[in-house]
Each structure stands twice: as structure tokens, then as C-alpha cells.
Amino acid sequence: MRLVNDGLAFLLELLALAALAYWGFTTGDGIALKLVLGIGAPVLAAVVWGLFAAPRATFGLPRVAVVVVKVLWFGAAVTALCVTGHPVLGAALAVLAVANLGYATAKKMATA
């Protein structure tokens, strides 16, 4: 079950990056701003993830802080989907992310 949840987590992370890229490319006026937002938003999100939330994050935070970073990170992706006119996809991402994060957090707390 852990392998399935880890695979789902990775898929959700990729979908969140795609949502941020989609938001960026559909937001803003002019091609330059669309490129900056479309490339910059997912790159910034990936850097934040790598620094604070990844399994081998650069900065080891307490578990509660990692959960907060993940909630904010996925919240940004859900918001990006909703403001671009895809609230059903946003809701689906939110539900799956909460279930995935909840399961992973519960398993880590049970083994700690």
C-alpha cells in the first residue's frame, strides 16, 4: 500500500506543477508575462518543494511544518485550477491530495 501511496503522491505533485504552469500560461497580458508566469510558477513551486517538503528536502523541518508547506503548495495548485475555470479538477486534486497526505502522515506517526 505504501508503494501505491508514494506513486499517487508523485503523480499529484506532477499534476500540481502542471496546474501552476497552466495558470501561468493562461494568466497575464502579453506573451512575455505568460512565459514568465507559466515557467516561473512551477519552477518556484518545485524549488520550495525541494527545499522543504521533498523526502530528501534540503532543510529538515518538523513534521507539522512539512504538512503546512504541502497544504500551502497543493492549495496554490487547487486555486490555480479554480481561477482558470476548472473547479471540478481543483476539487478532485484537493480531495486526492488531502487523502494522500493524511494517509502518509498517519503512517509516519504510527511508525514513529
From TrEMBL:
Q: Which UniProt keywords apply?
A: Membrane, Transmembrane, Transmembrane helix
User: Per the UniProt entry, what species is this protein from, by scientific name?
Assistant: Amycolatopsis acidiphila
Its name, as the record gives it, is DUF2568 domain-containing protein
**Which Pfam families does the protein's record reference?**
DUF2568
What residue ranges are annotated as transmembrane? Answer: 7-25, 31-52, 64-81, 87-106
Tell me the superkingdom of the source: Bacteria
